[in-house]
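quick one, 306 residues, struct below
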Amino acid sequence: MSVGRVLIIPGLKFNNPDAPKLVEVDVIESAGSLLLIDPTHPSGVWPGGIGPSGSTLRNVLWKKAQAVYGAGSEASLVPTLNYAGMSGATGLLERSSKGGLHALVSQAPGLVSANNTPYARINIDLEMRKWLFQHPTNKLYVSVWGQVTRGYKSGPVDENYTRDAASSVSCVSTGSGNQRIALGQRSAVQNELGKFMNDEKIVGPVFMNAASSAWTTNPVSESAIYTDLLGIGNTGVNNTYTNGATTTKTRWPSWVIYRVYVEDLTVSGRTYQQVHDIDYALYKKHVLTEGGRYYGDTYTPPSTLP
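---
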């Protein structure tokens, strides 16, 4: 019987950040990983269907987040899925054929409620919010993979809106114009370290990311930081959808969400470019390449809703 051998050299340290690393859960993982949402991740696929509003979503890298925060558990270091008005003629929330989360919302102003519906949003856990408050100058990376199924609809009224979160699919924000990272049709990154954007007007696969070195204005309290990380439709992330002329409510894009990732670059010691390169390579493999987990995805046609 052959026996494996391990060579141990006392005092030897590997200090090359580009050296190959053993992957525990996901290729993108690092000491600064805070959140990874991926419905069909090999380490644990979501159950079929859609849970009720308020359901938790698995954080693939919860152990990494726990090590950063020094607190929390698999049950608590999770985002939640919240939604309303996602049925009938106003909206539809479903799993796509490849397991993505498809949020389809109406673009008919006559069907939009004054009570901020329809919407679907993903909210971060309270430990992450506490970390963002306690470390306001840590470098933060956020990315989203998905597919635009119904494009952002622009028009004369819509084009007058310039607020950062006016059409963000993802936003790290305290409100009052203090959107640290906003990913969407009108993307903006405060204290930008880097960003990569696609146009939400165009139907098809989408990859967006950004990294920020700090808030413009530090949050005054934990509760000042919105827990909304990602939203589709008339949600708090897209708060200006509820303001102004009724026609502004016809512009919402619809999305299939495949993956959301958040990393504290200060903790990991990585640069925006290093994480972007890993992230984008994975996106191309799983979304754009035949055989990828999300390649060739199908979903309910947006024409189903007005």
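The radius of gyration is 20 Å.
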